[in-house]
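Please review this one:
***
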Amino acid sequence: MTLLPKTFPTTPTSAKSLRELVMRRGTLTCTAAEDAEADGVYKLYYDFSQPISRVLDHQILAMNRGEKRGRSQAQRHSRGQ
């Protein structure tokens, strides 16, 4: 997923720098969707927040599945300096 080209032109160097910055300072959060079941399969991710650099592969896969099924909503955030 690439969000930058629509916002501003990027070069490989600036894209790499931005990716490294997000990995260092970014946070991945996931919340329950409005119609999520209280004790559903994805309940571990209904109130989840972790630095991107510490999120494990299986957690990303589970959050992606939860989003596809309409049970959760993942968001990426960047922390200020």
User: Anything to note?
Assistant: Residues 12-25 form the longest helix (14 residues). The chain is about 30% helix and 25% strand. The helical segments are 12-25, 57-68.
